[in-house]
Each structure stands twice: as structure tokens, then as C-alpha cells.
Amino acid sequence: GSVFQVPVDARQSESVRLNERFQPLVGFNMTLRGGIQADINFTRSRALALSVAGANISESSTDEVSVRLSFSKTGLRIPIPFLNRRRINNNVRMSLTFSSADNTDQRINFRDDFERAIVGEELAPGNAQASTRITLEPRISYTISSQVTADLFVRYTSLESEGSQIPSTSTLNGGFNFRVSFSN
């Protein structure tokens, strides 16, 4: 008989990584009369990493739902005092975005589980960490012309974590952008 041998490559990988991302997995958008628009998206991602040297597998997954409501008015005419009673056309857009993302990280060590199984001990649960991030952002955009735009926004973010080294936090950010473009 012959023996089948597979040559071992010195460049073998010590880890394998798999990434999946569905963005959006499911999405829905709707436009109503009067410039109102609604978008709803569900996103799912997962990352798996197998470490041969460490004899463990890590899994990180995220499920996110986001909802955005917006209103836009085109051709809004506002009197400008310093332009001698002339009116200019402009655009106003208001939006409100809400998102909620659930993150789960888990690590399983095969070596520890194997040693416990040999001596008849109960297998330890994987080290699991979970967090939920909630974001709420109202925004107002004002376009005077193709050269002049302004944005005002406020963003609130809350992170609640369980079994994680990252503490639960909440932040409030805001900003104002005023853009003037000069061209020939």
C-alpha cells in the first residue's frame, strides 16, 4: 500500500478570520407628500476568529436598527433685510435619526474545556460581554444657494454594557457647520 502524505507548509496560518456584514439586511424607505421621508434599516454583522496557537475562538456580533425621519422644503422664500427687499430661494431640511445596536463578544477556550472534560468537571461558559448603544440625532440643514450652506446638529449617545471592561457611558455632542464656496 501507498501512504498519502500532505506536505506541511512552513507558512501555515496560525489564525483564521471570517467576517460577515449585511448592510442593510432589510431596509425600507418611504416618501410621503409634503417632503416627508422615512427610512428604516436593519443591519447585521459577525466576525469569527479561530486561534490555533491559543486554542480559542472569538465571536463578535452586532444587530442594529436605525430609523430616520426627514422633512425638506425646497424653494422656501425668506425676505433678507440687507438685500433691499429682494427674496432668495433656499432649502430647509430637518431630520431625526434614531439607532439601537446590540453588540455581543464571546470567547471560548478549547484547551480549558478539554481539561475540564477529562477530569469530569462542568464546562465553563464562554466569556461573554454585551453592550447596547443608542444614538439620537436631530439635524437642521439650511441651503441659501449652491455656494452657502449651514448645518446644526445635536447627537446623544448612550452605551450600556454587561460583563465588559468598557463602562456604561452617555455623551452629548453638537455642532454647527457654515460653508461658503468660492468659484470662478
Strand content: over 45%
Shape: elongated
Query: What is the average of the pLDDT values?
Result: 82
Cα distance, first to last residue? 83 Å
Query: Class by helix and strand content?
Result: mainly beta
> How large, in whole angstroms, is the Cα Rg?
27 Å
Helix content, binned percent: under 10%
Order of helices and strands: EEEEHEEE
Number of strands: 7
Strand order across the biggest sheet? 1-2-3-4-5-6-7
How does the major sheet shape up?
Answer: 7 strands, antiparallel
Number of continuous helical runs = 1
Q: Regions with pLDDT < 50 over 5+ consecutive residues?
A: none
For this entry, give a set of tags.
seven-stranded antiparallel β-sheet, mainly beta, 7 strands, 184 residues
Give the gist of this structure.
The chain is mainly beta and 184 residues long. It has one helix at residues 110-119, and strands spanning 15-32, 36-51, 56-79, 87-109, 127-143, 148-162, 169-180.
